[in-house]
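Subject: Sanity check before I submit

Could someone independently write out the structure tokens for this chain? I want to compare against mine line by line before I put it in a report. The sequence has 176 residues.
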Amino acid sequence: MNFVRALREVAAFLDPRGFRHAVVGGVGLAALGLPRATIDLDFVVDAAAQEPLIAHLESDGFETLHRSRGYSNHLHPEAERGRLDFVYVVGETAAAIFGSALDLEGPGGLPMRVPRPEHLAAMKVHAMKNDPERSLQEMADIRFLLTLPGVDRDVVRERFERAGLADRYREIEATL
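---
Independent answer below. Compare away.
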């Protein structure tokens, strides 16, 4: 997958329409200092963008693999265009994520926005709750996020507690 191309294309659609977005997933983690292999590009986006964004992607040859109120996944038949995954947020969640997102360097030196580590950790906690099979990778990622300077561990612990996963937070905390 050509991450630079995908970042430019998604931004070229969302930016002129005023839809806020940030990069999450493996590329977002890499921008924060945790490089790892990834085969897709993940975004968090204003929920109001969902309808026009999906229509645009489908008109550009992407197949919508899954769609719900909060998520959508899209795959292009050309490997270079790859897979794009979107998390849609609204209200206070959107305001918090986009209001404090970091401007970082992405693939090919391309500037991109990435949510603060606390927000990335919260998304990963949510993913663990919804799909426990993801727990090992998500916990490793959260552990890394907790080691970054200035991260508010209490905020992350609270997210685990709200999700009913306080024991998982204690597992991570014991390794720090």
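---
OP: Matches mine. For the report I'm noting this point. The mean pLDDT is 96.
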